[in-house]
Amino acid sequence: MDLQAVVDDIAAKLAERRGEGKVADYIPELAKVDPKQFGIAITTVDGRVFTAGDATTPFSIQSISKVFMLTLALGTAGEALWKRVGREPSGSAFNSIVQLEHEHGIPRNPFINAGAIVVCDQVLASYKPKEAIGEYMRFMRSLADDDSLLIDRSVAKSETETGFRNQALANFMRSFGNLHHDVDHVLGVYFHQCALAINCVQLSRAGLFLAAQGRDPISGYSVVSAKRARRINALMLTCGHYDGSGDFAFHVGLPGKSGVGGGILAIAPGKASVAVWSPGLNKVGNSALGSVALEMLATRTGWSVFGA
Amino acid sequence: MDLQAVVDDIAAKLAERRGEGKVADYIPELAKVDPKQFGIAITTVDGRVFTAGDATTPFSIQSISKVFMLTLALGTAGEALWKRVGREPSGSAFNSIVQLEHEHGIPRNPFINAGAIVVCDQVLASYKPKEAIGEYMRFMRSLADDDSLLIDRSVAKSETETGFRNQALANFMRSFGNLHHDVDHVLGVYFHQCALAINCVQLSRAGLFLAAQGRDPISGYSVVSAKRARRINALMLTCGHYDGSGDFAFHVGLPGKSGVGGGILAIAPGKASVAVWSPGLNKVGNSALGSVALEMLATRTGWSVFGA
Amino acid sequence: MDLQAVVDDIAAKLAERRGEGKVADYIPELAKVDPKQFGIAITTVDGRVFTAGDATTPFSIQSISKVFMLTLALGTAGEALWKRVGREPSGSAFNSIVQLEHEHGIPRNPFINAGAIVVCDQVLASYKPKEAIGEYMRFMRSLADDDSLLIDRSVAKSETETGFRNQALANFMRSFGNLHHDVDHVLGVYFHQCALAINCVQLSRAGLFLAAQGRDPISGYSVVSAKRARRINALMLTCGHYDGSGDFAFHVGLPGKSGVGGGILAIAPGKASVAVWSPGLNKVGNSALGSVALEMLATRTGWSVFGA
Amino acid sequence: MDLQAVVDDIAAKLAERRGEGKVADYIPELAKVDPKQFGIAITTVDGRVFTAGDATTPFSIQSISKVFMLTLALGTAGEALWKRVGREPSGSAFNSIVQLEHEHGIPRNPFINAGAIVVCDQVLASYKPKEAIGEYMRFMRSLADDDSLLIDRSVAKSETETGFRNQALANFMRSFGNLHHDVDHVLGVYFHQCALAINCVQLSRAGLFLAAQGRDPISGYSVVSAKRARRINALMLTCGHYDGSGDFAFHVGLPGKSGVGGGILAIAPGKASVAVWSPGLNKVGNSALGSVALEMLATRTGWSVFGA
């Protein structure tokens, strides 16, 4: 299969639709991004890279970072993490607080905001706040094989200043005893993790271990066990697109994680790691063109985990 | 891989645990079943069958039937069905009515009770009630390649008499205009579809088309398109185990659908269709031993869709 | 105080606003009513009657009947009734089913639909369905001192045919064991009780015992104890206007019960029973002009229970 | 009526039951209070005072303060306040956040925590934080006619340190734009208002204007209009006891406001203001013995607003 032709074709077909969707506006810095951008990058398990469009333009990783911070937290806490956060789709919006009240402060999964905040809190059991961010950066640079990755401090600051909803979630969980560290410290880590600037090439490279049984197939470095890689993929498939996870599985059929920056990381187990990016979001908060691009890709490649 | 050795080993390892879980007691007829039973059957896409335990003992198909009735309804209504039922995990119990009120009578997916009732209603747009049941039986016998399949009338009657919750769901949806036929007719079809008696061998045979791109690989008969087969698998993975779907994906990693009769149908795309049965249910209503058996099977075979 | 002048003045002031609000359309027979009608009647505890507008035009009593059926049920079951229905405002719409799921089939109060259905079920512990309706009619005719009161069979039939939501509520409660009789029998009573045709004069007369310590001050007949009369008034004040009860207490300050037929019964303890009627409803389902009329009346008379 | 005999009798009858209920333990300072205390004070509109038990022992006013801060806020903002907070019973616990999500950050009424926090925020439109607390103290001392009233700083500090749930509520409302000031400033005012130490005599005196058409009948000072006094009483009756408001109206029949410190203020319009205090709380968070005492008082005096 000529993957370069596939991505070129997808980029060409979507050229006219650039600008669809609505750029996230609740984080002021994100609202400034030009909506007419689209990029895609595929890194295969044998190390080839295929790109089209704005594949080297950095964007804000936002919630896609939850996959990587979860990986870090599982590394320090192991399966005990699952006492503090569930593994079920939420059936509600990414920032809903209703479920937390009904389930006594235990978030439904690590990919909704509340769950990701608990994951940060767990990491703070092993690291001080600044160290935690340092560890995360070291991890991301290593996975992306690119030491130039940086946090966009203006985005981190923008989130810190307007993050009332996340403040609410964190304080609410703390009232149930499911947050152990100072709320501002936990959210400091969370907002910095989300503010990482990354491009499609780097992101697809960083996710490659999930397509390769937990091992980075290029460096040979073992990131997680094969079992844990499968489980993270399972969580991405059932919970990775908030209340659009079922639809993404239905249309694309790959484990994936989206962010409000407009990026999506998708994993084709045994085959490739894919990153797409386009800032306009659909009504459930996932990249509009990114979702379409991945559906086209899955159709063309037959990579759906649900059958060729 | 010696699949016979695998299923024998699973059956042997679970022998001591027979009786775990709690038999469904809200349907009086089901409460009478001996809990110490366990069966497993694998039908591979190349037509081989492997069994262990009580693989030829009939049990009540219950909610696993939702996969087949959905297939029938998509055949008559096509994608228009999705205007009346969603494709997202529910985040709540199989018989919850709360979500229906919040979302104006549109069930979250076709595998919770409310969604399956809408699916029945859709089938009644093409068939009269008795014809609908007849069509369903014809379909099941054809898929299972076994004309001896029968509905257990005592179970159907048992459900009809105590099905107040389903009456509530159906009437509630009708109040929103999302049910078009007489409630008793719709539920009549629904209760009969759930009361089909089937065994593991028959069930694994019936689901084989979902492992084989929509085509029955033995008869060569095309049941659905490859795309539709993938989509049904996606729905099974994200929504097939009620509020335990995330956990099933995490531990087993296969599309699956459970029923309160204790059966589970699991699909390994491109490889096999698997049926397990053990009457005791875990706390979210899925077969306790059946779930464990499938996790063991996935581990031994590497069939998880999320990577070997 | 010249009460006749007061009601004349209210009717005059509201003449221009006749037709405000929206006539209930979910019961087809009610949708046919001319919206430009308004009536008011006051019956004082010393037996005087003051009327203005369409005070002798019959309308459908609808939910106001819940006050009277509750009185009957308390008469047969006593305080044991409160094991099956709560006494708290619901914080949701009159026909919400969400609360029932969260509170295991116990309705929040006897004035939301679910609670009124339980009240009917309780009455069926003492009477067969037809007898229950007969007893209710006997009671209403006695209280209104008018043997001409009749049930409007076309309204009863209209509700029976479209009452899917109430079917849902009843079946849902039955699934929790909080309904003991056949759903159709219970709803049969309920729909007939709601279909009573009554006018303002009759209604204000029927409610008089609640203004007079439980005793009909004209006939001298003791309907309920003074304590029970106070308690029914308390329930009317906290729960009598669905999710507009707080607002009604804030603006009017009298125990009251509204119906979707556009009627409201209000009680001024120690002073009078008041009935108003105008078919147009406000957004929470209470008579728009009726609410305004009662606020004007309370202001003019100083009858608010919260201070002159 | 010999009110002294009434309160003596109530205190005597409850002597054996002292210690019933459960002292609030989520505020550490409150958990230290001796549960076996009980006090009652009645101040009549003609200025007589009747007391029994621990009527001069100070306790923490807690949520009863919401009545007074609401009075202040209405004084500065007028009826515009009602755009930011509703007037309906909540149908849920005093600190529930679910309703806020469903109703877009508008609290149901000013007596649940979220509503009281909005009220504080409104006061901060007119005063700086320290001035707001000063104004509140000036108001309370004036109403209680006692300049010795003080805030218990250890209680205020205790709440500030553990008030994660209120932090969550405040941040949540801020995310909806329904909080305009710094969360810490708003909560600073809120925690100080709740930490006022007051005794039954002072509290019954402070509430007297609500029993006397808004005017302090002793000083002659007009606190609010008669209409506003009625409306505050209405809010107390429908919303003053959280999710036990209906029950309090049913059993006692007086406007009242409870606090987790164990105090209750009850108003008999035109007759008296009553304060009771006993630290043990019932399951909905209201003083167990205090509720019983008020029911006895209402029965003995015939002061129920729902009829003698």
UniProtKB/TrEMBL annotation, chains A, B, C, D:
Protein name from the UniProt record: Glutaminase
- Reactions the enzyme catalyzes: L-glutamine + H2O = L-glutamate + NH4(+)
Q: According to the lineage, what is the superkingdom?
A: Bacteria
Q: Which Pfam families match?
A: Glutaminase
Sites where the protein binds substrate? 63, 113, 159, 166, 190, 242, 260
Identify the EC number(s).
Answer: 3.5.1.2
InterPro entries hit by this protein:
Beta-lactam/transpept-like (IPR012338), Glutaminase (IPR015868)
The record's listing under Gene3D superfamilies reads: DD-peptidase/beta-lactamase superfamily
Q: Which taxonomic lineage does the organism of this UniProt entry have? A: Bacteria, Pseudomonadati, Pseudomonadota, Alphaproteobacteria, Hyphomicrobiales
Q: Which UniProt keywords apply?
A: Acetylation, Hydrolase
What is a GO molecular function of this protein? glutaminase activity
Q: Which family does it belong to?
A: Belongs to the glutaminase family.
Protein's UniProt keywords contain rRNA-binding: no
